[in-house]
Amino acid sequence: MSVQVNGNTDVLAVGKLDEAQRFRIDTVRGMLRVTLQRLDSTIEEISDDLRPNEAFADSSSGEVERILGRAARDVLSAKHVFERVADGELDRFNLNYHCEVAYRVSTELFNTCAQAVVYASCKAEVRL
Asked: Which of 26, 42, 34, 44 shows the shortest CA–CA distance to 8?
């Protein structure tokens, strides 16, 4: 197992190592803490990028933050999958990996999407 800290990759060997080769527990905790801080920072950056310019009048601030946090984690997860998995292997992934759909769209966005689906269907029928 390898852990990247400050751009350096340290190898954490699994198995029996003599005491001089093993990381001390406080070192491992520190490495995990740094990794978690970077992850939290990345999630916050993605959340800020997803944040709409105007506030939602019908949603509480806590609800918006919860949705943005979930969306940011989903974006980061997808980013890591696409960076690490070959195109041919994407079929083996469950697209509903957490089976939780908790997003709610505005009426305007829903109607726009529905119109796009109807338009695409009509366009496909005309080609036949």
From this structure: 34
> Rounded to the nearest 10 degrees, how much is the dihedral formed by the CA atoms of 72, 78, 80, 83?
-140
What pTM, to 2 d.p., does this model score? 0.54
pLDDT tens-digit readout, 5-41? 445 454 555 566 677 788 889 999 999 999 999 999 9
Q: Map tokens 């908790």 to a residue.
A: 102
Q: Which of 85, 82, 63, 62 is nearest to 74 (CA)?
A: 82
Residue 76: which H helix or E strand, with range?
A: helix 61-84
Angle between helices 25-50 and 61-84 (to 10 degrees): 110
3-class state of residue 11 by DSSP: strand
35 contact partners, CB below 8 Å, separation of at least 6: 3, 5
